[in-house]
């Protein structure tokens, strides 16, 4: 089976490896163009592009699936296209090229969390269980019929990054199994059923913690935006980055946003009980342990996060 693989970030790499190791003929990889990375903004290939180069697979770079990209896809004559977090829409003209269409690995239990940030939104919402599906890509936003499903428990301290890492590997197996079933004529996709929820792409503002919210909601938010775009708060008008916090239901007297030492722990008040800071990155400095940051402050009595 001739496969076009479309993907961009690191979470898509296990799927590419699974298809290659599974004996599929990956005829080309579609990925987004090199992007500036780091403070020096060095143009850097996507993780999928780097892996494709290591595997000796031809790469099609395209910020969007336009006429030029469609011509290149058509030229490699794929039987099916597998897509995992490519980062762009696939127009009808491209959907029609492979005889088996496009199969999307999506990291949610559709129709829950349709969109670009399903795992992040699931963690923020406090879901106990999430998962991944393979489905037939169509014009609608993650609306196509489902081939296969897997579930994954959300652990209490999981960040979005933790959960995506696990799902990227289990989902890779699911994708390979789905393509094998399609190749054997044994795949029978079923319409999605259940309550629809949307997972739009996260913005920087999604990481801004509101200390008047309950502690549990703040903890979920911080874990859901880790590692990107990251949790943050304001201190004296400057943005301060935070790693996920710990719940401290034993301390309830702190006002929302007020910072105080409790033994060696650095606590912040919320709309319910306190949370404990783990690591903090003040403006212009490196990430450090919260206790080290507190020792460097003259006093925490007047420190209030906003």
From TrEMBL:
It comes from the Bacteria. Keywords: Protein biosynthesis, Transferase. Attaches a formyl group to the free amino group of methionyl-tRNA(fMet). The formyl group appears to play a dual role in the initiator identity of N-formylmethionyl-tRNA by promoting its recognition by IF2 and preventing the misappropriation of this tRNA by the elongation apparatus. Pfam families: Formyl_trans_C, Formyl_trans_N. Residues 201-297 form the Formyl transferase C-terminal domain. Belongs to the Fmt family. The keyword Transferase applies. Gene3D superfamilies: 3.40.50.12230. It catalyses: L-methionyl-tRNA(fMet) + (6R)-10-formyltetrahydrofolate = N-formyl-L-methionyl-tRNA(fMet) + (6S)-5,6,7,8-tetrahydrofolate + H(+). Its EC number is 2.1.2.9. This is Methionyl-tRNA formyltransferase. (6S)-5,6,7,8-tetrahydrofolate binds at residues 108-111. Residues 2-177 form the Formyl transferase N-terminal domain. It comes from Arthrobacter sedimenti. InterPro entries: Fmt, Formyl_trans_C, Formyl_transf_N, Formyl_transf_N_sf, Formyl_transferase-like_C_sf, Met-tRNA-FMT_C, Met-tRNA-FMT_N.
